Amino acid sequence: MTFDPAARQKWVPPADSPIGKRGLRPKDGHDKATGEAMYVQDISLPRMLYAKFLRSPYSQADIKNMDTSKAAKLPGVIDILRYDDPDIKDIKRAGSDPAPGSYTIYGLPGTADHYNHPMGVIVTAESEEICDEALRLIDIEWEEKQFYVEPEESMKSGAADIWYNTLPYPRPPGGNIIRDDQIAYGDTAKALETSYKVIQARIKREETTPAGVEPQCCVAYYKKDGYLDLWIKCQPTNAATEMAGLGLVDFVKVTTRVPYQGGWFGGISWLHWNNLFIYVATVVAKRVEGRPVKLIYDESNFYNMGDEYGIFEFKIGVSENGKINGVEGTMIGCREPMNKLYKTSNIKNILSKRIWPFVNRNNYCCFRHGVCECTAIDTVTNYVAAELNMDPTEVCLINDGSNGDDWETIKQWRIDNGWQNPEVRSMEEVLRIGKAAIDWDNKWHQPGTLKLPNGKMHGLGFTHCYVWHGVANTNRGAGLSYSGGVAYIRGQFSDIGVNAASARAATVAAESGLRYDDVTCRHFESELQRYAHSQPGGSLGTESNTPQMVLMARELKKWILQQAVTEAPGRPGAPPTPAAFPGKKVNELDIKDSYVFEISNPTNKKHINEVTKTSTYHVDASADLVPDHAVPYKYYMCKQAAFIEVEVDTDTGHVDIVNTAIVNDVGTVISPEGVEGQQYGGGTMALGKSLTEEIIRDPQTGVALNANLLGYGIFTMADLDKPIDCHQVETRGGNNAYGVTGIGESLGCLLAALTNAAIYNATGKWVNHIPTTPVRVLKALGKG
Amino acid sequence: MQTWKQFNHINANSITEAETALAEKGAWVIAGGTDILGMMRFDILPHDMYPAVLVNLKDITPSLDYIKEENGMLKIGALAKLEDIAHNTMINEKYKALAQAAHRTASPHIREMGTIGGNICQVNRCWYFQSHENRFHCLRKGGNMCWALPGDNRYHSIYGAMDGCIAVNPSDTAPALIALNAKILTNKRTIDAVDFWVVKIPGSTILEKGEFVTEIQVPPLAVGAKSAFTKLALRKSIDFALVNCAAVIGSNNYRICLNAVAPIPKRVTASEDSIKDKTIDESSAEAAAIAGINDVMPMAAAGYNPGNRWKVSAAKGVLKQTILACK
């Protein structure tokens, strides 16, 4: 099948279909409500062994000597894999998100680069308890080295090298700097020179972590015939391909199963590091050939660091009316901070710089990817508003656009290209709804001017961005099979709780005419990963896979209707079976709720089982899609905004979030509950990043002091005075099928600095150190 | 390491049985278990302190989970659940500070299991003390230094050290019991609440080997006296206090107690003297709060450690709010 990618934007969901319908039973509901949902941790196989890593007690240290003899003698220990064993010492993955190739992660290094670094040795034993006991028996002589947990220290001239065994190429001059680069649009220097005012801002974001409920885990079963079965906890499911690339196992000999993935509170359950975990499990399994091995981390699984950690500095050139002429933004951290500001605005001059130093904290993790960039948008918008005494929503609208073009230019482009609803301006709609939801026009005030009767200071915060867009992945696709009245969506993906299966089933049902309940999505397995969906859901998955769902469902519908008018050949010697609708043509029929019916006489209908009888059908959408990767989107036109209302206790530094409104233009809503789940879930997670979450380290040792679910303050819905008020907008302005766009990840980033702006509105003081805990609020108020 | 070490578990059916079982080496009591099980699971204590035996008090008959009033005295069994205390009508009407304190402890799930006896006996929450696998072998575990002193002490004592330790007492019900002039009964003696907490290795109470709390007694408030409890926490849904405070004020009763600011609960007599005989209003509450923080010794910021000077302002704020709540 083929299609025109521009045309798919104009597809309209069938009327009166499951798309956008509330109350559909979630496809994962039964499994999760009954406890039958199987997670990797639940996998238990006959004669299964357990394997555990040593975790480093030091922040930067080498293993000088290691004596594993006592551990090896412990009854129940089957294997001990040392870092210097030829089976593992060269297993590595070059590149860690977000800068592939920047540094290498070894599967089992002999050097620890952060506290709790899984390294050194893996013990495989009959039980987890024996693993732990054996690890305690290993004698290690460590050589502790200089460490730095703060980027400013690591970057200093003369600082000792850290992470010294992890670069795949000679260390660049400057010691601990991995990358020092930039992306430039226009001429920012000139824009700043010619501006009415140049505003400066500096913000620090502390380290956050996914804090997963289900620790990293992999079951690997390497059989004596060289075939490998895997059960993986990982977002991308192409483990087999990757291991083939490492020479570990032939691709065709790997079966990968992807059970439900336990929650990571919005953290992405993938990374080169997670893939590496699977490789290591495979190495261990090969060594104990013939017995399955479960490689596991401990419960307090705080081994990754959010990629938003760092220091941001901005120079913003503005005109008197709030028009932003140019922005120079630098992040001392792992990302360039300004990419999304460019995508969501008409600002033509942006210089986005990154200085990325090593620090002896955990490995960077793409965790709700985009917090940095949302921090930049939040800061730029609100600082401009503050300096010019303007309403930040006005600043937003003045600078609204995409890729440096303003709304009028974009509108004309939409008209010229036959866009749906070309004159509907997403940002206007989003602002109108959000401001009404929080009563912004009546409540917004100048900073530090409203003291409430309870003695607290009232404040409002606002921020915005575009809603992330995905692309249709051509190297991943799906299949659709039909038999006995049921359509089976084939395509492996890891479900991390976003319930993408329901959205896909709704699309197939809508386009094929089947009932929603007659469409099933079995995503846990796929032979040879023949079908592997894009990432599970949220910003990329549902959007990316919608074109495939639509196309396959339409093919299925064509086939069913053809079956309805075609005589089926009988068995040898038997007469043919008459068509279900003899004498009719395909275009005289339609399908609704799994019934084929005559359009001019709807009472003439037959269930699809009667029509298709025992025939089956298969179609795939893997190979025919136009490679969209090479064609970036012209504009990002679906917008989102968040508003919070706070009460700040200026004696204690406590910030109460008393009201939150989130508005997302998702283009087209496929699953309203799915979107809402992302809104209130993602919104809550992001507020935690803004207000309570950080890993705190001991300055003398670099040890994480609060790396547990009690000490690390994950924000919960119980911490909000009121549930988040979620609003969904449908402008059909997305670039993908039905004009749809993504939702999840963007929400988890959008509010991640918002309490800073809200506290400023309440008190007239910027905290500028995220999260804005009482410690920092009081310091900003001069009381700390 | 995250797996359990071996230990014995004994169900005591009477106080005498419990006493006998506790005579064994390494025997600890377990009630709700919400404190001790975490400590064992995450290897917080050095191996020679790890409980070898847990003596379960929940099977003792008659049960120790009662809440009753006898001759005007509130009597709460040590195993009364925090959630039951929080929602008890009589406690809410007559001993409001205690109901509020119980209600603000932890989360609903933990309150359904956690007992008041456990809450007042829990160990401190200093992150150095609580480090997994005893990563920091501190003073309170038999080590030779307080790691918080040169380390990150943003949540630690603002009233200086006690026996070299600056970890704070984390209990929410403790300040309420002191403010309410409660007595704590054990299987051996009766102790005034204000004398119950000390700094020990590794514990936080005056209890001796083989001794456990059986009952808490709270005398009736004088007519016209009011009580209140306030808590500042990072998250109101579950967290331990950054600062908490309980007060009983009125009819010649002035008892105000801060907690989570010092190694043991801090009765702020300076605040009591300041508010004595005054009408409670913004001004008198502010003055009393300032008096209560007169003798603080906060930790200075050093390098990336922010110190805890912020906590002085927070303590003042919480003091003031608690006093005003007794209006």
Keywords:
heterodimer; A: 784 residues; alpha+beta; 25% strand; B: alpha+beta; five-stranded antiparallel β-sheet; 11 helices; 12 strands; globular
How would you portray this structure in words?
The complex is a heterodimer of chains A (784) and B (327). With 784 residues, chain A is an alpha+beta fold. Chain A has 21 helices and 33 strands. In chain A, the strands form nine sheets. Chain A has a seven-stranded mixed β-sheet with strand order 3-7-1-14-11-12-13. A six-stranded mixed β-sheet of chain A has the order 9-18-17-16-10-33. In chain A, helix 10 (371-387) packs across helix 11. Chain B is of the alpha+beta class and 327 residues long. Chain B is 27% helix and 19% strand. Chain B is built from eleven helices and twelve strands. Chain B has helices at residues 15-22, 36-41, 82-87, 89-94, 96-103, 108-113, 116-121, 173-179, 269-275, 282-292, 310-325, and strands at residues 8-11, 27-30, 53-56, 67-70, 73-77, 183-186, 190-192, 213-218, 226-233, 241-250, 253-259, 266-267. In chain B, the strands form three sheets. A five-stranded antiparallel β-sheet of chain B has the order 4-5-8-6-7, with no helix packed on it. In chain B, strands 9-10-11-12 form a four-stranded antiparallel β-sheet, sandwiched between helices. In chain B, strands 1-3-2 form a three-stranded parallel β-sheet, with helices on one face. In chain B, helix 5 packs antiparallel against helix 8 (173-179), helix 9 runs antiparallel to helix 10 (282-292) and helix 10 (282-292) packs across helix 11 (310-325). Classes of the chains: A alpha+beta (784), B alpha+beta (327). The A-B interface holds A 57, 128-129, 131-132, 135-136, 149-150, 298-300, 649, 651-654, 692, 696-700, 703, 705-706, 708, 710-711, 713, 715-716, 718-719, 773-776, 778-779, 783-784 and B 1-4, 42, 107, 127-128, 130-133, 135-136, 147, 150-152, 154, 232, 234-240, 242-243, 302-306, 309-310, 313-314, 316-318, 320-321.
